[in-house]
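Q: Got a minute? One more chain.
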Amino acid sequence: MKILGIETSCDETAAAVVEDGASILSNQIASQVAIHARYGGIVPEVASRQHILAIIPILKQALAEARVTWSDLDGLAVTIGPGLAGSLLVGVNTAKAIALAHRLPVTGVNHLEGHIYANWLVDRHHHSAPDFPLLCLIVSGGHSDLVLMKGHGDYLLLGQTRDDAAGEAFDKAARILGLGYPGGPAIERAATSGDTSIPLPRAWLKGTNDFSFSGIKTALRRLAEGDKISTKGDAAASFQEAVVAVLVTKTVAVAKEYRVKQILLAGGVAANGRLRQRLVQDSPLPVLIPPLNLCTDNAAMIAACGYYRFQSGKRDGLDLDVIPGLKLG
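A: Always. Here it is, folded:
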């Protein structure tokens, strides 16, 4: 079963063809990072206009790389939320037009659910499929969520961010330190030249499974304004370690509490090397982590998720619409 995935939730225009929810036949992405870097963050109107320019070329590239035509496809999967409304509309309306023109079924996919399914896109000859129940740590620019996954499409939200998400915190920290955009990779690069000698607070929010990274960001700003930072490398390393420590510690504790079989890492921040290293190191359970190229936004993960939605009989009509604030669980 070949599924065409379309992803336009933020600033990446992506299309991919995935077979049977696991084998990537193509995975094309047009990035807008260079465009938004000059503004220090994503400009929604600019992002949606760029999606309009990129969507048709990217679709053609995805089909060509996969060596398929429209008649070879069994269905379409498209991100409907959460994300930027204007960006989402480009992908959803394109998917509906294709579905109508080529008489293909279409299913709307939650972007966060898509990130989870990046972990299904692995070589099945060397790795088995994830084993339920799973605890999913989803960390990105807008989300820091702990989700219990009991089966395909069966989610229970256990914890979430109360203010800044981890990725957002990295972006703001990078801006404070003058390290550029995007902040996550910038902080990680700078951290390699520093140590964790700068004391920064950790918000544990005891009695809950929630996260909070606003306080550590404010603490970093005050240190920078007071000229109390030794080097940018030390500041970056200390900030990164504080964020990672909270993410990992709370994730491992919740995994033990709910007696899951595995921990699954997903989202753009899952590309952070220190987070990947420490989660594997501290967890008594097997940890599943997508390859680096599947951590950030891509359409292969949307197609993989779409395959399982189709398998369970979930299809949407041409009245499918975007839900910018869509929740998971």
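A: Residues 134-289 form a domain with the Nucleotidyltransferase; domain 5 fold (CATH 3.30.420.40).
Q: Perfect, thanks.
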